[in-house]
Amino acid sequence: MGLLTSLRDSISRVTDGLFAADEPKRIGIYGPPNAGKTTLANRIARDWTGDAVGPESHIPHETRRARRKENVEIERNGRKVTIDIVDTPGVTTKVDYKEFLDHDMEKEDAVRRSREATEGVAEAMHWLREDVDGVIYVLDSTTDPFTQVNTMLIGIIESQDLPALILANKTDLPGSDVQQIANAFPQHETIPLSALEGENMDEVYTKIAEYFG
Amino acid sequence: MPHQCIECGRTFPDGSKEMLSGCPDCGGNKFQFKPGGVTESPDPEATPASETATGSEPAPDFDSSSDVDSERSSPDPASPVDTSDSLDSPDGTDAPGPVDRRPERAVSSGTADPDTTDPVEGDAERIDDEEAEDTAQASARSDVVTPDELDRATREAGDPAIEAPANGSESAEPPGSQPGVDELRDELNEQFESIKIVSPGQYELNLMELYDRQEYIISLQEDGRYVIEMPDAWGVTDE
């Protein structure tokens, strides 16, 4: 039994190695709603492929299906790193159509958006379990990072031994507090950025190459 | 005659199936537990209340419940086979029992004959004794324990678990009782829905449940149904 197990592990390692050489790492962009995940995904995709990943919006849960941008080649310090970017719906423990009513949305549309957002969270969690090789965790640096969702997701990511890069987004906003995020997750490196303005993207790409290359 | 309809006073023998669908005479669905030899108490909650209040004599509690199944040759706590793995001490089974085995007891007491189900019956009636009778009976007819019940039972379970070591007979109680509570929490979590539809357009999500499940929800329907994607290897792997 032990022999079989070790044999299987060996084969698994070899095949993993082969795939690792051939296939780009699939990097999930995770975080709570409205943290700027799609803005970041679009920024990365536009910078390196010229295309966008999906529409951005200030209304929460704009992204309700995971969207993937494949074969994004990032060059850093002479190294070329190819990744697939998966922009995931914002993860939350509660979805309420009422929050959409504030954004001039009819109730029927708000209810539908709410349902789709819930499906999106389920999909995001499924991707996290099955389909990502690394995580870029995006947080809005103007909001409190000590939330149940953040703690739980970071915990899951750590338990999976996935490489994770924590980004403190929206540094262009007045209330931005990067240190608060660094304090919340001291076991990880926190990189400040403004995905909207493109601030500090150089460091982000360097870290992406370092973490996921 | 351990069970008595509080409406009409009709009594039922241990393991009776009749009362599972209500009292045949008056239709009442509230019964009180009257273990043999114990004098009736006007207030069905008086006994458990005093027991839990004093908190110092878990053994009589255990005995009074097990005298129902005194014909059992050995008070082997592993009799409820399917749950013995999670609750491994006799006194430990006492405490968390009310919570995590309720559906199984309900099934057993309703289908098997009294002789063979004595150990299970003993447990079921102890629940009956500890909680309101209608709760136990309601649980016998339904297969879902509400989170509220579980929460209450979890809290109650904590007391006997602490009392047991004070009895001094089992040295393994403290470590045994803590896993029991953890098991209960796991059980509790398992029973939470992965997605709770509070009302149309309002959802509460159990992220751990969503993450832990192999299948995932693709589409929620208006009527509360949902479509799931089954994993590719369903039934082939260790699941």
TrEMBL record, chain A:
Residues 26-170 form the G domain. Pfam families: MMR_HSR1 (PF01926). GO terms for biological process: tRNA methylation; tRNA wobble uridine modification. One of its GO terms (molecular function) is GTP binding. GO terms for cellular component: cytoplasm. SUPFAM superfamilies: P-loop containing nucleoside triphosphate hydrolases. This is G domain-containing protein. It comes from Halorubrum cibi. The lineage of its organism: Archaea, Methanobacteriati, Methanobacteriota, Stenosarchaea group, Halobacteria.
UniProtKB/TrEMBL annotation, chain B:
It comes from Halorubrum cibi. Residues 24-184 are annotated as: Disordered. Residues 115-134 have a biased composition (Acidic residues). Residues 58-67 have a biased composition (Low complexity). Residues 149-158 have a biased composition (Basic and acidic residues). This is Zn-ribbon containing protein.
